[in-house]
């Protein structure tokens, strides 16, 4: 997207076009469902999982169009276009908020120092040249979560990569991703992933 909502809109609608052509209603429906889920995954990466704006509510209404309208390629196309427009507007609004100069600096600092177990909101605010209260407010407004939650999510993402490809012990991974103890790592990992690091590795 790179901050260009018009270009993003054009691209998203172009990707829809092949779905309407030469398919049965059920095939059209199935193709759109895959596209819709992929779009929702993108929204989730921006921590957009709900909205209180009525005009954008359809983005999060699973299978709403299947019961609201007759299932034809034309009706799905019309719904899909409305879905894309709403989703892009939501993405662009969040993207703009996340381009705040303090947030850009904060995200970069977290990516470079997440391994430090002493990384704190106080330290981050000092590095960004602002107050803890203001930076905390920016995180909450832009990501929908506080600083600690954002930091933990980043650490868990890094830990998952190590669990996927490495042979390090759970304790070594906990230390390498900035957790002050293996017990804390296990607790936070299970909260985010629904399973312990050991269970996650066993499944992989």
Can you walk through the features of this model?
The chain has 204 residues and is mostly helical. It has eleven helices and no strands. The radius of gyration is 21 Å and the shape is globular. The two termini are 32 Å apart. The model has no long low-confidence stretch (mean pLDDT 84).
Give the radius of gyration: 21 Å
Order of helices and strands: HHHHHHHHHHH
**Gap between N and C termini, in Å?**
32 Å
Number of helices: 11
Overall average residue pLDDT: 84
Helix content: over 70%
Shape: globular
Query: What would you call the structural class?
Result: mainly alpha
Give the low-confidence spans.
none
Strand share of the residues?
A: under 5%
Please summarize the sheet with the most strands: none
- Could you give the count of β-strands? 0
């Amino acid at each position: 997207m790179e901050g260009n909502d018009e270009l993003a809109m054009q691209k998203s609608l172009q990707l829809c076009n092949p779905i309407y052509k030469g398919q049965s209603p059920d095939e059209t429906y199935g193709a759109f469902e895959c596209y819709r889920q992929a779009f929702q995954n993108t929204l989730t990466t921006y921590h957009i999982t709900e909205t209180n704006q009525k005009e954008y509510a359809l983005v999060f209404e699973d299978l709403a169009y299947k019961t609201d309208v007759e299932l034809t390629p034309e009706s799905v196309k019309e719904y899909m276009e409305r879905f894309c427009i709403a989703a892009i507007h939501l993405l662009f609004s969040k993207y703009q908020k996340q381009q705040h100069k303090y947030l850009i600096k904060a995200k970069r600092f977290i990516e470079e120092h997440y391994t430090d177990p002493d990384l704190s909101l106080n330290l981050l605010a000092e590095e960004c040249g602002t107050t803890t209260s203001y930076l905390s407010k920016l995180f909450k407004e832009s990501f929908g979560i506080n600083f600690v939650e954002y930091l933990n999510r980043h650490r868990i993402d890094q830990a998952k990569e190590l669990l996927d490809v490495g042979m390090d012990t759970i304790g070594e991974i906990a230390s390498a991703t900035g957790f002050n103890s293996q017990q804390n790592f296990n607790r936070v990992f299970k909260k985010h992933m629904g399973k312990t690091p050991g269970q996650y590795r066993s499944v992989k």
